[in-house]
Specification:
The chain is an alpha+beta fold and 303 residues long. It is built from eleven helices and eleven strands. The longest helix has 17 residues. The radius of gyration is 22 Å and the shape is elongated.
Length: 303
């Protein structure tokens, strides 16, 4: 007969059907007239899960830990995931998570996916007009590269391009049979490269994105290379370093050592791997893992 339940991502490792069944079980416990439970606190990265279950959602940031937002969810229960009100709340939380909500700016923190604390506790919420957020992502220079591939991003553009007036993120996730938060890396990569814009959870392709989408294979690589050089400091720095290096090559370990100044060992390796993948796709540079050598791509020499 507990007074409270504390759950840390309780459904994240389950298949979709089992997770939904267990969500409903928790909601039944919460709504029962005979319940002893007065509060439920649940940590989740899944926006739709938070909106489906919570009376309020607390968005947390990191480095250092800080409160970004505290939002009441006043939707009637049981909640319909396909209703306009549900999708509007998902879009609102997405805008807060990505720093696009219109709120007072605070000093920027290292970009990291904030966590959601989905709470059903009967605690007064803060006034939403006083919410705090980190600086908008597009203004943060040298932010970590999203874990997204050029091919995956091109596929996302294929879908978004079918909607000239844009598409809500919740609808996009539904069309692809994924959760909204599964799209974060691709959407983050798209906004980083300026091939899509996201406003209040509404995704729309840009002129640069349409140019990439419409191009043939060779031209698509050139467009991507241009966008990466313009908007991605790590890719640009590697390319410039190779262009000025004696012999036209550098050891990958050198770049990893430089990345270690900002990232953990695991994150440094991930950032390097993503940069190499993006550089290869754009035919800017290549990497031989056996010899640990970065070299300019033949198509880029003398450019």
């Amino acid at each position: 007969q507990p007074d409270a339940l504390f759950m840390d991502e309780p459904f994240s490792a389950l298949d979709v059907l089992t997770a939904e069944n267990l969500r409903q079980e928790v909601l039944k416990l919460w709504s029962s007239e005979q319940r002893s439970i007065k509060s439920v606190l649940m940590v989740t990265h899944n926006i739709e899960e938070a909106v489906e279950m919570a009376d309020r959602v607390v968005v947390l940031g990191s480095h250092p830990g800080h409160l970004i937002a505290n939002v009441r969810v006043d939707l009637p229960r049981p909640r319909d995931r396909h209703s306009a009100a549900f999708e509007a709340m998902v879009d609102k939380l997405y805008a807060i998570l990505t720093g696009q909500a219109t709120q007072p700016a605070q000093p920027a923190h290292k970009a990291e996916a904030p966590k959601l604390s989905a709470s059903s506790a009967n605690v007064p919420a803060m006034d939403e007009t006083n919410l705090q957020t980190a600086e908008p992502l597009e203004k943060i220079k040298g932010r970590p590269l999203p874990n997204a591939t050029p091919g995956g991003l091109a596929g996302l553009l294929d879908v978004v391009a079918e909607h000239p007036d844009g598409i809500d993120l919740a609808d996009l996730a539904s069309d692809l049979s994924f959760e909204v938060d599964d799209l974060f890396p691709l959407v983050d990569a798209g906004t980083l490269l300026h091939v899509i814009v996201v406003r209040d959870g509404h995704v729309q392709i840009t002129e640069a994105g349409d140019a990439w989408h419409q191009a043939d294979i060779l031209r698509a690589k050139q467009v991507f290379a241009s966008l990466a050089m313009e908007h991605v400091p790590l890719v640009r720095n590697i390319e410039h370093a190779l262009r000025h290096a004696s012999g036209g090559h550098l050891r990958g370990e050198l770049m990893l050592d430089l990345l270690h100044a900002r990232y953990s060992d695991e994150d440094a390796h991930q950032q390097f791997a993503i940069a190499v993948e993006w550089g290869r796709y754009g035919e800017l540079f290549d990497y031989d893992a056996d010899d640990d050598l970065l070299t300019l791509d033949e198509a880029n020499k003398g450019a």
